Amino acid sequence: MKTIIEPFRIKTTEPIKIITRDERIAALEKAHQNVFLIDAENCSIDLLTDSGTGAMSTRQWAAMMMGDESYAGSRSWKKFERAVKEITGIQHILPTHQGRAAEAILATTLVEKGDIIPNNSHFDTTRANIEFQGAIAVNLLCPEGRETGKEAPFKGNMDIEKLKACLQENNQEKIPFCMITVTNNTGGGQPVSMENIRQVKRVLEEYDIPLVIDACRFAENAFFIHEREEGYKNKTLLEIAQEMFSYADAATMSCKKDGLANIGGFLICNDDKWAENFRNLLILREGFPTYGGLAGRDLEAIAVGLMEALEYDYQVYRHATVTYLFDKMIKLGIPMVRPAGGHAVFIDAGKFLPDIPWSQYPGIGIVNALYIEGGVRGVELGSVMFGQKDNGGNEIASPLELVRLAFPRRVYTQSHFDYLIEIIEMVWNNKDKISGYQITYQPEFLRHFSCHFKKV
Ligand SMILES: Cc1ncc(COP(=O)(O)O)c(C=O)c1O
Predict the structure, then answer these.
(1) Ligand 1 mutation target, pool 216, 253, 404, most atoms within 8 A of CB
(2) Of 2, 30, 316, 419, whose CB count within 10 A is highest?
(3) What average pLDDT does the segment 18-37 reach?
């Protein structure tokens, strides 16, 4: 069949409010030109994130009714632990309320001032948690990952030579662990190959440095490996995921992505001492180790969701939706990160608006135009989200200026995407009218969430 249908029927609906263009202009004005500060009900198609925004299945809702809300040692915890162990094979499992809580525990217990943490690309919360400890978060993405227009199967790979150089140049005491993010959200949702994970592990072993996987989209990554890497066609996605985790000493996870849940996360590791330290902080910050800030019903939903994310038909449908939008945008001539990512499409904002310098945040111009024209909410992944300061305190550009349209899981249908294409085409055809922005207020960390802008 040429048409790939959603492998589910819709049983519950949620109304979408459609407000006028003038109302959207007013809403954006009230939100200081930052779409993070807009009321969600004023967004018609909300592609801000794929995190926690998915629809749960009947099996998940049914499981939630079985939630055991006992404080300690609940049945729901056992199901959660069993599911995570089956997929990862990792010994110590600590539930957390979401991914960044796992990152915070990891960073607080293991990272010290002046340490260096390599990654293919740190996600913003990962970077922030590391920098909060006074350490340096280093991105060692492979060269093709930085070329948005270049087609390659595994553009999320770590640059092995750069990793070797980083380990040679720095005292290994300064590198408590190395991370690898699958798929690589900030670099366009691009996958990491099994071969690359294996090589990273091999290099780290020489220096006795543990590998921590940022596993938010482990199932999407497993699907890419199945489709693109030799030797994996006859393996199930579960078997591929199991192999990926077999190279890890620890992992952080946001179950709001490939846990197909609206909240939740975990931190897992094999080392007993690490686990003890993690657990002490977990009790202080999140809760008792058998619930970690989650309700029993959340643990149930995640236990089912993690397995559903590894269903082949679900992944085929998910990737078909991303590719559907991506192909249409390519046809319009829009500069995109190629090939399509796993959870989102990424517009190359620098090429979309070549006359707007990075210091005037071209990504914000596109994000705001999409909102005004069609109530579509996307997000900038560029010099606002990832801008850094040099030693003199001057802002330096992010290597890429991107706009991400992330796909909530099992939420929007083909007609939503057809509407989206019309809006994107309108914005593309009127790109000369888009202006740059400047920041008028920003907090110290994670500024993109709450900073204020004004048009230049
Ligand atoms: C790669 C990656 N790591 C970590 C996180 C943080 O997870 P959470 O939002 O659950 O805190 C995210 C969230 O988008 C992510 O994409």
Answers:
(1) 216
(2) 419
(3) 97
